[in-house]
């Protein structure tokens, strides 16, 4: 092996070890959870205690899955100290693998792609996975996303869907032109959009719009003020929310609907400033009214 390749393979070897440590931490936490299932609320309803192991091990792209899409596991777990410590070990292992994957990405252009293809070989059910034609590549967001662990007792948790609707980014005419030119500039629909762009002032601001998936928002109300005086906190959750168990019980939970609202509930005021039809459909770019 050449000296130039040694650092790359050392990083991949370290990645194998970190990934094994992550899966081991997941299995330890899941086994502890399953041995004496704590009070748990799940959005998806009832089920056996193995759901948590399946959720934590869900780190893979499925066939035809949008790479930006993640599968969420909305739940609240009232955990005792040993279980909280086990979940913290999972988070630490996730952070370690995230840091290493960033090092691999920076060290070599194709390194991250190699890593994502390599790790399925270390999945505990890889033969079954590959046989069913499902998960084939590591889903980075699902791999390193943290379990939200609350550090203090909580009296109430209010869960609600947060449909922010769309993110709006202001761009210049020059930036829009560059983005169009990165597409197939010989395609008729791109040429039409370039002509439209050339017909407006170069100083006119434009808005690029990105649809956003609904999020689950957890509003936490603590039993006592925290050291900084806070009595409540809000956070988005995609993984089970872990709260300290109070006499083995869950806090009071305001249960959300099973499905997010069909209509977006936020960002309408900003959207009203935009024309109703896209000015550059290929880029989801709108003109301001």
Automatic annotation (TrEMBL):
One of its GO terms (molecular function) is DNA binding. Residues 252-274 are annotated as: Disordered. It comes from the Bacteria. InterPro entries: Tus_dom1. One of its GO terms (cellular component) is cytoplasm. One of its GO terms (biological process) is DNA replication termination. This is DNA replication terminus site-binding protein. It comes from Vreelandella aquamarina.
């Amino acid at each position: 092996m050449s000296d130039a390749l040694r650092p790359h393979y050392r990083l991949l070897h370290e990645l194998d070890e970190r990934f094994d440590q992550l899966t081991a931490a997941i299995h330890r936490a899941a086994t502890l959870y399953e041995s004496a299932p704590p009070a748990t609320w799940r959005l998806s309803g009832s089920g056996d205690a193995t759901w948590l192991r399946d959720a934590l091990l869900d780190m893979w792209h499925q066939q035809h899955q949008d790479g930006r899409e993640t599968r969420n596991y909305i739940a609240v777990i009232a955990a005792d100290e040993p279980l909280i410590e086990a979940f913290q070990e999972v988070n630490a292992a996730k952070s370690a693998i995230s840091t290493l994957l960033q090092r691999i990405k920076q060290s070599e252009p194709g390194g991250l792609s190699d890593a994502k293809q390599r790790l399925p070989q270390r999945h505990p059910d890889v033969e079954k996975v590959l046989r069913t034609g499902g998960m084939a590549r590591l889903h980075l967001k699902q791999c390193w996303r943290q379990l939200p662990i609350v550090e203090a007792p909580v009296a109430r948790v209010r869960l609600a869907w947060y449909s922010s609707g769309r993110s709006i980014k202001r761009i210049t005419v020059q930036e829009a032109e560059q983005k169009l030119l990165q597409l197939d500039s010989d395609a008729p629909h791109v040429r039409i959009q370039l002509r439209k762009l050339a017909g407006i002032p170069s100083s006119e601001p434009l808005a690029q719009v990105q649809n956003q998936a609904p999020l689950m928002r957890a509003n936490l109300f603590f039993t006592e003020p925290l050291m900084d005086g806070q009595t409540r906190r809000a956070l988005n959750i995609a993984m089970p929310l872990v709260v300290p168990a109070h006499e083995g019980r869950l806090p009071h939970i305001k249960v959300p609907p099973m499905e997010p609202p069909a209509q977006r509930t936020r960002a309408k005021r900003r959207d009203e400033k935009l024309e109703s039809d896209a000015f550059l459909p290929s880029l989801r770019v709108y003109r301001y009214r």
